[in-house]
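Late entry, evening session. Most of the bench is empty. Finally got around to the prediction I had been postponing all week. Sequence below, unchanged from the version circulated by S.P.
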Amino acid sequence: MGAAVEFTRPDGKTAPGYLAQAPHPERAPGIVMFEEWWGVDDRIKATADRLAEHGFNVLVADLFRGRSAATGDEANHLMQGLDFGDAATQDGAGAAQYLRDHGAPRVGVIGFCMGGALAMLCLMHGVKFDSASIWYGNPPAGAGDPNNIGVPIQGHFALRDAFFAIEDVDALEAKLKAAGAPYEFHRYDAEHGFYNTGKLGEGGLGHYHPEHAETAWRRTLEFFDRTLR
């Protein structure tokens, strides 16, 4: 189980987070995690804990400052109030620096849904990470420059995603390819949020796909083991 922490952003402001530590946290690689639009709920904490069990120190940046949503309307309201540029360049950078200051030799970033878009924005805006895992989320066209990306990226996208169209993923991939960015994209015959075990009416989307979720998770662990250790 993790614990609540505070970290300092580049602008000097403090921000809250959830820290899950590896069994042997000294010099363990670090991972910054960005939440889905539901906020830092029990599922996101459990995902951070799962990564920590594999040997990573994981810091979830609490972008909504302790708030979370139980319905899609609440989540959309919270997301609309978020300054994505500030979250990426300040919260993301501050969380990464916290992990480095506590011994992480390398730091990656992972994000789900809204958090996937934020992880990409971090890279596009020059926030220092060593690799990134993007789960069914990508920023809108023009939000950042793929030419700024020089670290390995792994993406996990749903072919039947009603929130992030696969055609937009194809367009992003074309830009990354043209920029020479080191990426690997995986596409799954699933719907948005296929890793989220939540049910409709309980804060989830009801689109959990256990086989694809575990395949993507295995690929993510292999990717971070390769790029962060």
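Two things to note before I forget:
The chain has one domain: 3-228.
Confidence is low (pLDDT under 50) at residues 199-204.
Will write this up properly tomorrow.
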